[in-house]
Amino acid sequence: MNSGIGSIEIRRFTQTFYKNQFVISCRIAAQKYRFQGFTEVEVADFDQEEVEVFAKNWFIAVAFKSKEDGEAIGNLFINQLHLPENQHIRELAITPLLLHWICLVFQVKDKFPLNPAKLYEQALNILLVRWDEVRGIKRDRVAHKLTLVSKKKLLFQIAYLTFEQENYFFEQEKILQLIADYLENLQNVNSEVTQLQLDNEAVMKAIEVQNGLLVERARGIYSFSHLTFQEYFTARKIVESSPSYAWNNLVSHITEKRWRQVFLLTVSMLPNANEILQLMKQKIDLLVAGDERLQYFLTWLHQKSSSVSTRYKAAGVRAFYLVCVERSCCHRHHAFVYTSGYDLECALVGNITFDADLVLDEFLFSTVACLNELDFAFEYTLNDGLDHGYALVIAFDKAVDLVVDPKLKQLLQKIKKQLPKIDSNPEKFRDWWQAKGKAWGEQLREMLIKYRNIGYDWQFNEQQKELLQQYYDVNKLLVDCLNSAACVTPIVRQEIEETLLLAIADIEKIRNSCTNG
Fold this sequence. Notes:
Blueprint: H1 7-16, H2 48-61, H3 67-81, H4 87-93, H5 96-109, H6 116-135, H7 148-164, E1 170-171, H8 172-183, H9 193-210, E2 214-218, E3 221-224, H10 227-239, H11 243-251, H12 260-269, H13 274-287, H14 292-307, H15 314-328, H16 343-349, H17 356-377, H18 382-402, H19 406-416, H20 426-452, H21 462-484, H22 490-498, H23 504-516
Antiparallel strand pairs: 1-3, 2-3
Helix pairs in contact: 2-3, 2-5, 7-10, 8-9, 10-12, 12-21, 13-21, 14-15, 15-16, 15-17, 16-21, 17-18, 17-20, 18-19, 18-20, 19-20
């Protein structure tokens, strides 16, 4: 249908060769005609199982040496496709055309490109140009010589403006207006209103019908065919815009999770990401600058992490203790729910084997977390309370075994003897805990504060817990951007890493010492 063959010619052809079987294919948006004798079928996107079947068969079909080699590469493809960091590729893979292209990309190096932006640029070129070239289709330029570059910039603008307004679905009139606004800025556009309206519709249909980048989800309601494309186009718009405005506007969205991929894509495409990374760091520091309790907590975090003997980066150790505190505060009566694991720490120092101090403190924090939980667990059911009781005993036993300081070890062993045997008489353990558990927990906390400088009851309110979680998340985003940036100078990288997760006062001390040095 898209190759320019008219409906009359198709009808005549099928009637002349009526003994043959025919298949006519087109994009859904290009479906204008109904042909007698044909059954209409709409091909749906692949589901994940169909993606895997297609990929396995594809790699077997193109295997250079043997079927076994094809199967091995196919299995490797599927395993890597399901990695969390490749979710953006999975979203594209449900489209058969793009899945074929993704397989081609993977076949070259047996892995996906480290820079997703390059992957999306290749996909965009396939949809805008190469897919027509492969099929030998030539199209007239629409909207007064709208070039490939202009068409891309139009897509970037539509994506940016709709994404910023949190519009993933938009009415046809909205798209037409955005196209009109864009065409007005082109030097070779005809300014007559009537002709401009016709051009708007022609451009929209070209993007929808020819390229499949816009999809009509319901009558007059459109969206980008994949959220991934909308995010990528938004990032491209930011990269190609005036830095002073575009970067500040982007950084204003730093706490909104839906902007995460846009941040990562933007820094990966910038020729120099120094300034935007520094803007992100300033915004993150200001996030908690006005809360005295959180500033005091960050001061403690710095002091504690500086006191332990470890081979890891200071920021990674601070991230470790931040996670430990958050988890110890996270029980069912608190709105704060920690969800990030050790992601930030791993992003800073990689997969690590904890040093002795860190292992000990992790078990001690786990014991404190169980203390916080037990008070409420027994209010529900005996089994619920016992589950947390077992966890407390296990964590505490391991911590006591790891303690090196003889005085602390002696004190911990002494209060350990006060705990009733949970296995022999669960009800007795419950009764003892409800009567004496709080006092026992206070003894433990006093020992941990004195000897390990941990175990504080920070008494964060719900707003502070939420802010602390947000603070962690945006720091993780900053580190991911730091690792994704195409170019960031060593000095800027070092400055950002050295001042991560620090109170404002400590950041200023470090910067002043660097200036004086």
